[in-house]
Amino acid sequence: MPFCEYCGRPVADNEVCDCSNVSPKEKKVKKASSPAVKIGITAIVLLIVSFGAYFVWFTHGLMFSQRIKSTNSAAGSVYKAVNSSIYEMGEQGYNARGYYLICSDRSKNISIPNHLDEDRLYNSIRNFFSDSERFEWFAVVENDSVTYSALANSWKSKPVGSYPASDYSGISYYDTGFIETEERNKATLKMLYADTEKKVREKADDEDFLREILTTAEPTKE
Length: 222
Prior knowledge:
Blueprint: H1 35-91, E1 98-103, H2 118-128, E2 136-143, E3 145-152, E4 161-163, E5 172-173, E6 177-178, H3 181-184, H4 189-204, H5 207-213
């Protein structure tokens, strides 16, 4: 029995195989995608990549915002602890008033009054804020109350919190106001301290400023 020379199928005598018009050497040519299909696929891929990037950015921003709120809350705790300590020391007959910058690192304290019992003040702060030794922080005292505080896990770590804070999510510099988001992301406690130290030293030398905010009070106990 004869066979088709193209496909090898058995054929009857004088039978013409249906595949006789197709050469075995011919290769099927893949039909090219139309430009519209290519554009559509590219657009879908770009959309997926863009959505993924946005999701990562949004999640990171949300987490950073939550961390800012947490550190702002801790800065507020320092603010309240120092205020409460000043009041308590006054009730006990010790004078903690003045214009000065007090820090978790005592070597960074600025313009501490001679009459201030630092050990008593730090012990009192720990009583009102048990985590005060877990963080690095500083606070500005004007007369008998705190007007500004800032806090972070370390002097160079981020994020850093402050009190007062903008809508409980932003931070501010001392005596300046709230800073923009892009600057907030760059801020460290070291940067806020450097700015605050400069201003405190300048104001401590300003007799008119001191006369305005301070009241004359001699310590009743040493």
